[in-house]
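Schema walk-through. Below, the input block comes first and the output block second. Nothing else is stored per chain. Lengths vary across the set, and this one has 375 residues.
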Amino acid sequence: MESISRNSWKSKYTYKYGLVHFQKFLSQSHPEYNIESIINALKKEHLDLYVMLDEFTSYLINKKLELTSNSIRLYMASIRSYLAYYDIDIIPSKFKRKVKMPRHYREDEEPLDASDIRKILLACNNRRLKPYLLTLGSGGFRANEALAIRLKDIDFTVSPTKIHVRKEYAKTKVAREVYISDEATLYLKKWIEWKYGDKSKEGAQRFKTLVRNEEDLVFTTHITRNTMTLYPKVLKEFEKLLDTSGFSKRKEEGKQKRRKITLHSFRRFVKTVITDESSSDYSEWFLGHSKSPYYTKKEPERRQIYASKCMKYLTFLDYSALEATGKNIEAKLKEKDSEMQAMRMKYEQDMQKMRDEMESRFQQILAKIDVANLK
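--- output ---
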């Protein structure tokens, strides 16, 4: 567990749950062994490795556990890693033949559009949750990337606001710079001002007056630098918000019946918008995915692309900006109509000119024929 957690604490917990299921399986099917003694038994070939793994797969598929196919694959991967750590090699081709894993049937994710996000935000009265959701909805952060933002990571001096994503919290372990909308900036500033302000005037004595430190995490209500304890609290607040705003639908698969709308839905929305309004390469860079090594732009140019092409479509509550966007679209439609009208008139003029020329040539030909007949 210690070696697994060096690169990702999430992997540690996934592997832990896999080992817990493996221990329960052994206590039922092979009570003479436990998770430690099974290692020697497998090395001495007292048990068939592949038969045991196939039995473990059947145990995980049990309807009582109600695990998804993805969870089963993750838990099997954790056991294979555990066995490999103790020099028990598993041949991939042999594993594939002898251990039949459940097939994963892909299901499209529930789409989230700007009106859905606006509805969720309008129902949100949580002082911390609203700027957090606006940050996700305009910056395309992963949930933990946004929770790991420190005060020193935010640059309010540039427009749009630039936020540094630390490499240790990025999934790809590569640091990057992300922009958020002016609307998200406004709510974020209000949250930070309230967090470090005097709350006694508002009757919020239960919140202590905090001393500002640039190392502090932004979305905490007290001094802590541990995102592991912060995520469950924010997630619980978000799930309550989904229920009150009418987005409580859940998926059919799995014991926990995962929600169709999640925090990650905001990231998918940002990816879709940026791809539509700019380019796929730019969206891949913005979200921190693997990108083409040939796609390079200087920081001011990247910021300008976000500000001019994307930000207005990642604004949800700033009605002045929305109205300006609507007027801009209306003006463009009128301009297109004018262009179409001009093209239609030019087409008709060109056709009339062509008819006149053809008529003139036809008359000339008739005149020549008449002259020839007279001769």
